[in-house]
């Protein structure tokens, strides 16, 4: 076989292959699995927030969100959706960078920037969901004053 020809697709490899973990394969599998789970989470989110409440989308307000974030089930639902979405998007951006950026230093820098941004957004989003307090900063002239005093 010459340098200009390709081996047949089913031909055995002539060079020894890396026996380590194939991160590209696991990234590819993660994209498929997280995509399926995200479809379920997102459509469940849209259904429970926009379709099922009486009044539809017009029922969506601060009190509605505060009520959902008071329930651990919806907190974990939204956090799981947040984590999967950011990791899915970050992995997709990593793939695009690997495909289109030629310079090794620039490519590595961009991949690091993507993962740092993903990590920061996951931490901030998780903090918002689990530390959400609808009564924070409520004053006597607010419409939430009576509800927050009862709590």
UniProtKB/TrEMBL annotation:
Keyword Zinc-finger: no
GO process annotations (BP): tricarboxylic acid cycle
Membrane topology listed for this record: Multi-pass membrane protein
SUPFAM superfamilies: Fumarate reductase respiratory complex transmembrane subunits (SSF81343)
Gene Ontology molecular function: heme binding; metal ion binding
Keywords per UniProt: Electron transport, Heme, Iron, Membrane, Metal-binding, Transmembrane, Transmembrane helix, Transport, Tricarboxylic acid cycle
CDD domains attached to this UniProt entry: SQR_TypeA_SdhD_like
Localization per Swiss-Prot or TrEMBL: Membrane
GO cellular component terms given for this protein: membrane
Residues that span the membrane, as ranges: 29-52, 72-89, 110-132
Alphabetical list of InterPro entries matching this protein: SQR/QFR_C/D, Succ_DH_anchor, SuccDH_FuR_B_TM-su
Cofactor: heme
Pathway as given in its UniProt record: Carbohydrate metabolism; tricarboxylic acid cycle
Function text: Membrane-anchoring subunit of succinate dehydrogenase (SDH).
Family matches, as NCBIfam families: succ_dehyd_anc
Protein name: Succinate dehydrogenase hydrophobic membrane anchor subunit
Organism: Microbacterium stercoris
């Amino acid at each position: 076989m010459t340098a200009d020809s390709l081996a047949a697709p089913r031909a055995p490899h002539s060079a020894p292959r890396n026996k380590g973990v194939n991160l590209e394969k696991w990234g590819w599998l993660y994209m498929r699995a997280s995509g399926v789970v995200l479809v379920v989470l997102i459509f469940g989110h849209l259904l429970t927030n926009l379709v099922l409440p009486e009044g539809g989308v017009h029922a969506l307000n601060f009190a509605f969100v505060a009520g959902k974030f008071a329930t651990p089930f919806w907190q974990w639902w939204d956090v799981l959706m947040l984590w999967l979405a950011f990791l899915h998007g970050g992995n997709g951006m990593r793939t695009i960078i690997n495909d289109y950026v030629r310079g090794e230093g620039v490519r590595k820098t961009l991949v690091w920037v993507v993962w740092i941004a993903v990590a920061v957004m996951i931490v901030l989003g998780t903090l918002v969901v689990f530390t959400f307090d609808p009564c924070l900063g409520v004053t006597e002239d607010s419409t939430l004053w009576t509800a927050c005093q009862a709590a």
